[in-house]
Amino acid sequence: MGSEGAPSSGGADSDAPPAVELDGVTKRYGDTAAVDDVSLGVREGEFFTLVGPSGCGKTTTLRLIAGFEEPTAGTIRFSGESVAGVPPEDRDVGVVFQNYALFPHMTVGENVGYGLNFADPPAGMSRDERVAELLELVDLPDAADRDPESLSGGQRQRVAMARALAPGPDLLLLDEPMSALDAQLRERLRVQVRKIQSELGITTVYVTHDQEEALAISDRVAVMRDGRPEQIAPPRTVYRKPSSRFVAEFVGDNNVFAGRVVDVEEGAVEGDDVPRIAAVDVGGEILRVDIDDVDIEPGDRRTFCVRPEYLRIGDGESRLRATVESAEFLGETTRVTLDWGGRDLVVRTRDPLSGEVVVGFDTEDAHVIDSDGA
Amino acid sequence: MADASRGADGDRYTLRDRLAGRLRGRLLTALAVVTSAVLVAAFYYPVGTVLIEAVVVDGAPTLGVFAELLRDPFYFGEFARLFAGESPLAVARALLSPDRRLGIVGFTAYQAALSTVASVALGLPAAYLLARFEFPGRRTLRSLTIVPFVLPSIMVAVGFVATFGTGGTLNGVLGALGLPPVDLMFTLEAIVIAHAFYNAPLVARVTTAAWESVDASAVETARSLGAGPVRAFFDVVAPQVYPAVLTGAALTFVFTFGTFPIVLALGGFELATVEVFVYRLVRDLNYAEAAALAIVELVISLGVLLAYLRYEAKNTVSSRGVRPLPRKSLIPSTPSLREVLPRLGLAAYVVVAGLVFVAPIASMVLASVTGGDGALTLDHYRFLIDRQQTGAAFQVRPWPAIRNSLAFASAATLLALPMGVVVAVLTTRRFRGRKLVDAAAMAPLAVSGIIVGLGLLRGLVFGVEIAGWRFAATGAVAIVVAHAVAGYPFVVRTVAPGLEGLDRSLIESARALGASRARVIRDVELPLVWPGVVAGAAFAFAISIGEFTATVVLATGADAYTMPVAIERFIGRRLGPATAMGVVLLVVTGCSFVVIERLGGETRGL
User: Fold this and answer.
1) Considering A240, B23, B85, B274, which has the largest number of Cβ atoms within 10 A of its Cβ?
2) Contact B510 A79 (CB under 8 A)
3) Does B437 share its domain with B354?
4) Chain A to chain B, count of Cβ pairs less than 8 Å apart?
5) CATH number of the domain that B465 lies in?
6) Residue A11: which residues within 8 A CB-CB, separation 6 or more?
């Protein structure tokens, strides 16, 4: 897990300890573990995202890193140094909350400058200059004297961002900072957030329930479920090669097939380009899929998935016959739900479909899920 | 590079950082300890020393005093026979018979129950008017509902004497109309009306707040599901308003059960309540019986308070982001019965309310400028000035009373504010035993002021010996402490809701930006709940200015008397100077309110 892809920035030594490291961290509330034995590392300068459905423990993980909660067990380290017992105000973190939490009794400028009560602005810069610089950075150069109440949601989010960055934190923690905004604004802001993060090269942990946002913005993504990460990998890997059925279905649309392996065609020679292919019996239909280096033998029960965009109408190496059930017009494509012997399949197409259709996929576009795929 | 940075980072969180973090985390705990110490020294210890006398006689523990008290029909009426071992059936029969005796405790509960009913009856229409109608002056009227509650009770008593007394305004009006005079003085009616004057605005206030937080869309949902307006009211509005009415009723019962100055002035010893009798027993130096009686009073008051707190805990609903019901105009939109009838009812209510709330104050002011012959005169004020200039040392002079009142109130407010804020901060955090802390901190509301006064008198003023050192405070210090203890629960009550409503992420944002927990209280929490703090200060100040019960005990003999004590000493002899002094008290109370309001801006809460 997470072996693929290097962080896009930072360029830190591979031996250097991670900027943030969780080592067997557990947080219990009574009998329930909100965070359950989590170990992960965030690299220097990395944009790292925790994504998952509500209640998966992503926000609690962030709060543990910020120091708002102390773990029940395990250790959190910043650059190799344990932060156990260090209160949030001494952790040099910047936090942006979902509701922005701007101080309503202060102006925008006072909000942004608040952290400078406890940390010096960069050398040679006055407090006011630092505030102005940050407001410039988030594209709100004239807002210093305004009242937070008078700002729009998007503007408040940017002020919260500027406030968190003003004291020059080592680590930026963002807790669903965009979920209260409308879709268009969210897309624009996430580009801006990512741009600021890259410019500053600041290590960032981002929490969201929106998998599309997670894929768009991150260097690496941890998909969480029931208090632990199911997969930690760069967005492309998470999307193309989900490690579990949960990840396959949570991230994007997917068609998941479960069946029994009837045959494995080995490549001619070890290390040859000819791929290993398995023939899987799914509900009586034999479907052929690439299995890369997954350890598979005939007789195994296996799960694999094919993204809707790789299911082609009337084409593909593995084919099956299904009936159109419903169609949603999404603009650039139409999302069609097919019924295949009682199973739902999803395809994306530009052309209207109806009645019985043949769909298929190439063996290389199927991904065998490494785990047992419950 | 890795190693170098590691070395540098290794020193990032020093032992000092960690220790400082832990200490700052304990700052609240430290403040809580200080507050508890003040409470113990100024409340629990003195009260304890008095109450212990009920169960320790001549150095030996005994329940004899209680047993005697419980079996005495003088205190418990027919119930005493129950404690004496008679069958409940016989007691029930005796209670139903026309010549039943209630005893002092029974009478106290009876008048408290009547007062509660009267207060709710008088308060609910006001809540309806304030919550559901829009009219000019609505906001002013809403903030005025706080005024009776903080008016000094002895002053209200003077107002009622001036209104309902033999030569009062009521009889003047009746005489002018050719009707026979009525004598309401020293009757149960006068006491109940005076209690309603006090507590109906409280009922109105809590009920209005609950009514205003009913979400209009809940009512609209009920209507869209087929409920008519009346049905929607009973299904949706009433269940949300009802707990608030109960809050008002429970508090009214507790306050009127422990009533003292009003009954002392309007009822005398013929209609004595428990508190008045405790006072009398203390005056007769019968401390054991006084303590036992005070414990009985405390148990009943605390019982009601605890039952209420349990109920409140079960019925708290958050009312965030609601769209309130639209207010109606006072002018009916159509001449239909449904539109006109409630407004006619309200008009009738306004007349009654005007009589109850305005008449006593107006009568007091009127009486202070009216001579024995009915002509306007400033004689009563002249009397006060003369007394100030020529009064003997043992006589009550006005200026020391005013000066003392203001000094005690300022000092008591300064003490009550930090105590109240600390308790509010503590009780709004989640931890095990929070309810217990809440109850222990609120206990001063339920304990007899006489007992607090007596305990402070004997514990602080007469001095305590601890490890060979003698600690003694002056009467003035004891009065300030007693007032602070009486006033700080109101600071808690006005500050806590604001803190409760604060978004946790505001506090966490400030922490993440580098502020310590204590600094966050200063920079974020206090500024945001400032109106509540100011309101709490106003309360503490007003409670102190008007406090009579503990003061009258502590001011005995000393020259530490306050305005309310001065009024009480005047009222026994002549009404005129008492009303004049009452007007002075009214002006001083009013001015302090204006000053605090100006300083702190708008007040809300409670």
Assistant:
1) B274
2) no
3) no
4) 107
5) 1.10.3720.10
6) A45
Partner-chain residue, chosen from A97, A118, A173, that has the shortest CB–CB distance to B515? A118
Architecture of domain A255-368: Beta Barrel (2.40)
Q: Which two tokens stand for residue A42?
A: 């965030």
Task: Please report whether residue B77 resides in a domain.
Answer: no
Q: Check whether residue B249 and residue B278 sit in a common domain.
A: yes
Query: Would you call A103 and B524 a contact, using CB atoms and an 8 Å cutoff?
Result: yes
* Residue A135 exposure: Cα atoms within 13 Å on the Cβ side: 21
Separation CA A351–CA A333 (nearest Å)? 8
For A173, the closest chain B residue by CA position comes to B512
Q: Which two tokens stand for residue B108?
A: 């106290």
Question: From A174, which residue of chain B is nearest by alpha-carbon distance?
Answer: B509
State the nearest Cα–Cα gap between A81 and chain B, in angstroms: 6
CB contact under 8 A, B512 and A95: yes
* Domain A20-250 sits in CATH 3.20.20.80: no
Chain B hits for A101, Cβ within 8 Å: 503, 505-506, 508-509
Segments forming the whole domain that contains residue B142? 102-367
Residues of B in contact with A16 (CB under 8 A): 1-2, 5-6
For A144-202, what is each residue's pLDDT tens digit? 999 998 999 999 999 999 999 999 999 999 999 988 888 888 999 999 999 999 999 99
Please say which residue of B367, B399, B417 terminates a domain: B367
| Number of helical H runs and strand E runs in chain B | 33, 6
Chain B residues with CB under 8 Å of A98 CB are 505
Structural domains of chain B, count = 2
Contacts of B17 in chain A (CB under 8 A): 86, 90
This complex has an ipTM of 0.79
Structure tokens at B19: 């220790």
Nearest residue on chain A to B524, alpha-carbon basis: A103
Q: Around B478, how many Cα atoms within 13 Å sit in the side-chain half-sphere?
A: 29
Kindly determine whether residue B509 and residue A81, on different chains, have CB atoms separated by under 8 Å: no
Distances A85 to A19, A82, A231 between C-alpha atoms, Å: 18, 9, 29
Q: Are B137 and B330 in contact (CB under 8 A)?
A: no
Q: How many Cβ atoms are within 10 Å of B40's Cβ, its own excluded? A: 12
B chain contacts of residue A105, beta-carbon cutoff 8 Å? 527-528
pLDDT tens readout for residues B475-533: 788 888 888 988 888 888 778 878 887 888 999 999 999 988 778 888 998 888 887 78
